[in-house]
Amino acid sequence: MKNKIVFFIFFSLLSFNLLAEKVAGVDLNDAAVITGKTLHLNGAGVRTKFVFDIYVAAFYTASPVKEVSDIKLDADPMRMAMHFVYDEVSKDKLVDGWNDGFEDNLSDTQLKQLKSRIKLFNSLFKTVRKGDVILLDYIPGKGTLVTINNKNMGRVTGDEFFHALLMIWLGEDPVGDDLKAALLGHKESDDE
Q1: Which residue range(s) make up the domain with 162?
Q2: In the chain, how many domains are there?
Q3: DSSP the chain
Q4: Across residues 174-180, what is the average pLDDT?
Q5: CATH of the domain at 90
Q6: Tens digits of per-residue pLDDT, 54-73?
Q7: Does residue 83 sit within a domain?
Q8: pLDDT computed for residue 161 by the predictor
Q9: Which of 68, 86, 108, 186 has the smallest count of CB within 10 Å of its CB?
Q10: Model's pTM, two decimal places?
Q11: Which of 9-13, 27-31, 33-37, 132-136 has the lowest mean pLDDT?
Protein backbone atom coordinates (compact mmCIF):
# COMPACT_ATOMS: atom_id res chain seq x y z
CA MET A 1 0.00 0.00 0.00
CA LYS A 2 2.83 2.39 0.91
CA ASN A 3 4.49 1.78 -2.49
CA LYS A 4 1.22 2.60 -4.27
CA ILE A 5 0.95 5.91 -2.41
CA VAL A 6 4.57 6.80 -3.18
CA PHE A 7 4.04 5.85 -6.86
CA PHE A 8 0.83 7.93 -7.00
CA ILE A 9 2.55 10.98 -5.49
CA PHE A 10 5.54 10.59 -7.85
CA PHE A 11 3.28 10.18 -10.88
CA SER A 12 1.17 13.18 -9.83
CA LEU A 13 4.25 15.38 -9.50
CA LEU A 14 5.63 14.15 -12.81
CA SER A 15 2.32 14.86 -14.54
CA PHE A 16 2.17 18.33 -13.00
CA ASN A 17 5.62 19.19 -14.37
CA LEU A 18 4.68 18.03 -17.86
CA LEU A 19 1.49 20.07 -18.07
CA ALA A 20 1.68 23.00 -20.41
CA GLU A 21 0.19 26.40 -19.75
CA LYS A 22 -2.90 27.28 -21.78
CA VAL A 23 -3.33 30.86 -23.00
CA ALA A 24 -6.24 31.93 -25.24
CA GLY A 25 -6.86 28.31 -26.14
CA VAL A 26 -3.23 27.65 -27.11
CA ASP A 27 -1.36 24.92 -25.23
CA LEU A 28 2.16 26.12 -24.49
CA ASN A 29 5.09 23.93 -23.58
CA ASP A 30 6.52 24.76 -20.18
CA ALA A 31 10.05 24.24 -21.50
CA ALA A 32 12.08 24.36 -24.72
CA VAL A 33 15.57 23.13 -25.56
CA ILE A 34 17.94 25.20 -27.69
CA THR A 35 21.51 24.04 -28.34
CA GLY A 36 21.22 21.56 -25.49
CA LYS A 37 20.13 24.20 -22.95
CA THR A 38 16.73 23.86 -21.29
CA LEU A 39 14.69 27.04 -21.23
CA HIS A 40 11.58 27.59 -19.13
CA LEU A 41 8.42 29.51 -19.92
CA ASN A 42 9.07 32.93 -18.39
CA GLY A 43 5.67 34.33 -19.31
CA ALA A 44 2.99 34.33 -21.99
CA GLY A 45 0.16 36.53 -23.13
CA VAL A 46 -2.06 37.54 -26.01
CA ARG A 47 -1.26 40.19 -28.61
CA THR A 48 -4.56 41.89 -29.27
CA LYS A 49 -5.17 44.58 -31.86
CA PHE A 50 -8.43 46.49 -31.55
CA VAL A 51 -10.75 43.68 -30.38
CA PHE A 52 -9.02 40.81 -32.19
CA ASP A 53 -6.60 38.29 -30.70
CA ILE A 54 -3.71 38.06 -33.17
CA TYR A 55 -1.22 35.67 -31.52
CA VAL A 56 -0.14 34.19 -28.23
CA ALA A 57 3.43 35.16 -27.39
CA ALA A 58 5.53 32.92 -25.14
CA PHE A 59 8.94 33.99 -23.80
CA TYR A 60 11.40 31.23 -22.81
CA THR A 61 14.53 31.90 -20.75
CA ALA A 62 17.15 29.87 -18.87
CA SER A 63 16.55 31.81 -15.67
CA PRO A 64 13.64 34.04 -14.65
CA VAL A 65 13.43 37.48 -16.25
CA LYS A 66 11.18 39.87 -14.30
CA GLU A 67 12.66 43.10 -15.64
CA VAL A 68 14.29 43.98 -18.97
CA SER A 69 17.52 44.67 -17.07
CA ASP A 70 17.60 40.94 -16.12
CA ILE A 71 18.26 39.97 -19.76
CA LYS A 72 21.85 38.84 -20.32
CA LEU A 73 22.38 38.28 -24.03
CA ASP A 74 25.80 36.70 -24.03
CA ALA A 75 24.97 33.97 -21.53
CA ASP A 76 22.11 31.70 -22.54
CA PRO A 77 19.77 31.13 -25.46
CA MET A 78 16.25 32.56 -25.40
CA ARG A 79 13.08 32.05 -27.42
CA MET A 80 10.10 34.19 -28.32
CA ALA A 81 7.35 32.01 -29.75
CA MET A 82 4.33 33.40 -31.58
CA HIS A 83 1.30 31.12 -31.91
CA PHE A 84 -1.15 32.70 -34.35
CA VAL A 85 -4.84 32.60 -33.47
CA TYR A 86 -6.10 35.12 -36.04
CA ASP A 87 -7.29 33.79 -39.42
CA GLU A 88 -4.50 35.37 -41.50
CA VAL A 89 -1.75 37.95 -41.11
CA SER A 90 -0.13 38.93 -44.40
CA LYS A 91 3.62 39.20 -44.82
CA ASP A 92 3.19 42.95 -45.39
CA LYS A 93 1.33 43.37 -42.08
CA LEU A 94 3.99 41.33 -40.24
CA VAL A 95 6.78 43.45 -41.74
CA ASP A 96 4.90 46.67 -40.95
CA GLY A 97 4.48 45.46 -37.36
CA TRP A 98 8.18 44.64 -37.02
CA ASN A 99 9.18 48.01 -38.47
CA ASP A 100 6.78 49.92 -36.20
CA GLY A 101 8.11 48.03 -33.18
CA PHE A 102 11.73 48.74 -34.06
CA GLU A 103 11.00 52.43 -34.75
CA ASP A 104 9.04 52.82 -31.50
CA ASN A 105 11.78 51.33 -29.31
CA LEU A 106 15.12 52.13 -30.94
CA SER A 107 17.01 55.38 -31.36
CA ASP A 108 17.77 56.72 -34.83
CA THR A 109 21.38 55.62 -34.35
CA GLN A 110 20.35 52.07 -33.42
CA LEU A 111 17.98 51.89 -36.39
CA LYS A 112 20.75 53.03 -38.72
CA GLN A 113 23.21 50.49 -37.28
CA LEU A 114 20.70 47.63 -37.62
CA LYS A 115 19.17 48.69 -40.95
CA SER A 116 20.62 45.86 -43.06
CA ARG A 117 19.82 43.23 -40.42
CA ILE A 118 16.25 44.50 -40.04
CA LYS A 119 15.89 44.29 -43.83
CA LEU A 120 17.20 40.69 -43.80
CA PHE A 121 14.91 39.81 -40.87
CA ASN A 122 11.86 41.20 -42.69
CA SER A 123 12.71 39.15 -45.79
CA LEU A 124 12.44 35.90 -43.80
CA PHE A 125 8.67 36.10 -43.32
CA LYS A 126 5.62 34.98 -45.22
CA THR A 127 1.88 35.26 -44.71
CA VAL A 128 0.83 33.28 -41.62
CA ARG A 129 -2.49 31.75 -40.71
CA LYS A 130 -4.30 30.51 -37.63
CA GLY A 131 -2.33 27.63 -36.13
CA ASP A 132 1.02 28.75 -37.55
CA VAL A 133 3.96 29.17 -35.16
CA ILE A 134 6.91 31.51 -35.52
CA LEU A 135 9.95 30.82 -33.32
CA LEU A 136 12.55 33.52 -32.80
CA ASP A 137 15.50 31.75 -31.16
CA TYR A 138 18.49 33.62 -29.83
CA ILE A 139 21.72 31.61 -29.86
CA PRO A 140 24.62 33.42 -28.16
CA GLY A 141 27.40 34.25 -30.58
CA LYS A 142 25.34 33.15 -33.59
CA GLY A 143 22.31 35.44 -33.62
CA THR A 144 18.57 35.05 -34.13
CA LEU A 145 17.20 31.99 -35.90
CA VAL A 146 13.75 32.41 -37.48
CA THR A 147 11.63 29.28 -37.82
CA ILE A 148 8.08 29.13 -39.20
CA ASN A 149 6.16 25.90 -38.70
CA ASN A 150 9.38 23.96 -38.09
CA LYS A 151 11.01 25.32 -41.26
CA ASN A 152 14.28 27.21 -40.84
CA MET A 153 13.77 30.54 -42.65
CA GLY A 154 17.20 32.00 -41.91
CA ARG A 155 19.38 33.71 -39.33
CA VAL A 156 20.22 37.30 -38.39
CA THR A 157 23.61 37.79 -36.74
CA GLY A 158 24.42 39.83 -33.67
CA ASP A 159 23.39 39.82 -30.03
CA GLU A 160 22.27 43.45 -30.31
CA PHE A 161 19.75 42.50 -33.00
CA PHE A 162 17.94 40.07 -30.68
CA HIS A 163 17.91 42.68 -27.93
CA ALA A 164 16.36 45.17 -30.37
CA LEU A 165 13.82 42.53 -31.40
CA LEU A 166 12.85 41.84 -27.78
CA MET A 167 12.20 45.55 -27.26
CA ILE A 168 9.19 45.24 -29.58
CA TRP A 169 7.53 43.38 -26.69
CA LEU A 170 9.59 44.52 -23.70
CA GLY A 171 10.77 48.05 -24.54
CA GLU A 172 9.62 51.48 -23.40
CA ASP A 173 6.88 51.51 -26.06
CA PRO A 174 5.93 47.82 -26.40
CA VAL A 175 3.17 46.43 -28.63
CA GLY A 176 1.11 46.21 -25.44
CA ASP A 177 1.75 47.02 -21.78
CA ASP A 178 -0.30 44.05 -20.56
CA LEU A 179 1.53 41.72 -22.94
CA LYS A 180 4.89 43.07 -21.71
CA ALA A 181 3.87 42.41 -18.11
CA ALA A 182 2.68 38.90 -19.00
CA LEU A 183 5.91 38.01 -20.82
CA LEU A 184 7.88 39.19 -17.80
CA GLY A 185 5.76 36.88 -15.65
CA HIS A 186 3.89 39.67 -13.88
CA LYS A 187 0.33 38.84 -14.92
CA GLU A 188 -1.79 37.39 -17.71
CA SER A 189 -2.14 39.53 -20.81
CA ASP A 190 -5.38 41.14 -21.93
CA ASP A 191 -4.01 43.73 -24.34
CA GLU A 192 -5.57 46.82 -25.93
Answers
A1: 20-183
A2: 1
A3: -HHHHHHHHHHHHHHHHHPPEEETTEEE-SEEEETTEEEEEEEEEEEEETTEEEEEEEEEESS--SSGGG--TTTS-EEEEEEE-SSEE-HHHHHHHHHHHHHHHS-HHHHHHHHHHHHHHHHT---EETT-EEEEEEETTTEEEEEETTEEEEEE--HHHHHHHHHHHHSSS-S-HHHHHHHTTSS-----
A4: 96
A5: 3.50.70.10
A6: 999 999 999 999 999 888 87
A7: yes
A8: 97
A9: 108
A10: 0.86
A11: 9-13
Q: Evaluate whether residue 44 is within a structural domain.
A: yes
Stated length of the chain: 192
Is-contact 151 138, C-beta < 8 A? Answer: no
User: What mean pLDDT value characterizes the chain?
Assistant: 89
Contact present, 47 and 76 (Cβ < 8 Å) = no
Domain-embedded: residue 191: no
